[in-house]
From TrEMBL:
<dbReference type="GO" id="GO:0005524">
    <property type="term" value="F:ATP binding"/>
</dbReference>
<dbReference type="GO" id="GO:0005304">
    <property type="term" value="F:L-valine transmembrane transporter activity"/>
</dbReference>
<protein>
    <submittedName>
        <fullName>Amino acid/amide ABC transporter ATP-binding protein 1, HAAT family (TC 3.A.1.4.-)</fullName>
    </submittedName>
</protein>
<dbReference type="InterPro" id="IPR003439">
    <property type="entry name" value="ABC_transporter-like_ATP-bd"/>
</dbReference>
<dbReference type="GO" id="GO:0015808">
    <property type="term" value="P:L-alanine transport"/>
</dbReference>
<dbReference type="GO" id="GO:1903806">
    <property type="term" value="P:L-isoleucine import across plasma membrane"/>
</dbReference>
<dbReference type="GO" id="GO:0005886">
    <property type="term" value="C:plasma membrane"/>
</dbReference>
<dbReference type="GO" id="GO:0042941">
    <property type="term" value="P:D-alanine transmembrane transport"/>
</dbReference>
<dbReference type="Pfam" id="PF12399">
    <property type="entry name" value="BCA_ABC_TP_C"/>
</dbReference>
<dbReference type="GO" id="GO:0015192">
    <property type="term" value="F:L-phenylalanine transmembrane transporter activity"/>
</dbReference>
<dbReference type="GO" id="GO:0016887">
    <property type="term" value="F:ATP hydrolysis activity"/>
</dbReference>
<dbReference type="InterPro" id="IPR051120">
    <property type="entry name" value="ABC_AA/LPS_Transport"/>
</dbReference>
<feature type="domain" description="ABC transporter">
    <location>
        <begin position="4"/>
        <end position="251"/>
    </location>
</feature>
<keyword id="KW-0547">Nucleotide-binding</keyword>
<keyword id="KW-0813">Transport</keyword>
<dbReference type="GO" id="GO:1903805">
    <property type="term" value="P:L-valine import across plasma membrane"/>
</dbReference>
<dbReference type="Pfam" id="PF00005">
    <property type="entry name" value="ABC_tran"/>
</dbReference>
Amino acid sequence: MTLLQIEGLGISFGGLRAVNDVGFSAKPGEVVSVIGPNGAGKTTLFNMISGVYLPNTGRVLLDGQDVTRFESHRLARKGLTRTFQNLQIFQDMTVLENVIVGFHLAERGHLLADILSLPSTKRRAREVRTKAMDLLKRVRLDKAADQVAGNLSYGSLKRLEIVRALAMEPRVLLLDEPAAGCNAVETEEIDSFIAELAASGIAILLVEHDMKMVMRISNHIVVLDHGEKIAEGSPEEVSKNPEVISAYLGAEAGQDTPSVEREVANADG
Ligand SMILES: Nc1ncnc2c1ncn2[C@@H]1O[C@H](COP(=O)(O)OP(=O)(O)OP(=O)(O)O)[C@@H](O)[C@H]1O
C-alpha cells in the first residue's frame, strides 16, 4: 500500500531548473533514500515534499490525498514531518522541554484550555511529559532529560531532533542528513534508530551523504543528478548502475563527493 506518492515534481529558481519531473513512492515501513552529487536537488526536493517550497509542477499525495499546497504545519498534522540539515534545537532549553515543544506544535487546538488553565490542561501536561520521557528512553536520552540541550554531544543532539519530530507522531518522516557531523559510533546509533522507526511502520525518506549508511538501511534509492532522476532501485541495483557511477565519478573529479561503487565496496568489506 502506497503511503506517499510523489508525481512529476519540479521547481525553477530564476533560470535554473533545480528539480525536474521527479517521482517515486514510499510504503509504510520503507526506508527510501534520495542520493546524488552536491547540488543535485535533494534538499530542494525535500523542501517541496515537506511544504517549504511550492512546486511549479507535479503533486504530492499522502494516503491518496493531494497535499501539494499544504504548508509544513498542516502536513505535520496530516502525518508528514521532517528534520532539517542544520539542527533546529532550542539550545537553552532542557532536553525534555525540547521534546515537549514538539508535542505542543502537534496540538495547537488546546490553546484556549491552556489560557484558562483548566484541570484538563494539568492532566495533559502530565501525559505529554510521560510521552516525551518514553521517546527519550528510546534514544537513551532519558537520563539527560533535565540537562540543557546545548550541553549534549552532537550525536545526541541529532537523536534529540529526530525524537522531537516523532512527537508529531508522523507516518512519514523526512530526515535531512541525520548523520552529518556524527562520528562512526553516533552514525551507527542513528542508523539503528532509523531502522527501528521503519520497523514500527513509519515510512522514512532520507537524504544522506554517508553512502555506507544509505546502502545499509535503504529499501529503495532514488538517484538525482542535475535535478533529474537518473535511476532508482535497490541499493544493489543503484550501485551497479553505470549512469549513477558516472554521475558520482564526474562529481568526484570536481568536488568532494564519494564514488558509490567504492563506498559500496567499503561497506561490504
Ligand atoms: N532558494 C534557492 N534559490 C536559488 N537556487 C537554489 C535555491 N535552493 C537551491 N538552489 C539551487 O538548486 C540546486 C539544487 O540545490 P540543492 O540544495 O537542492 O541540492 P542538494 O542535492 O541538496 O545539494 P547538497 O548535497 O550540496 O546539499 C543548486 O544549484 C542550488 O544552488
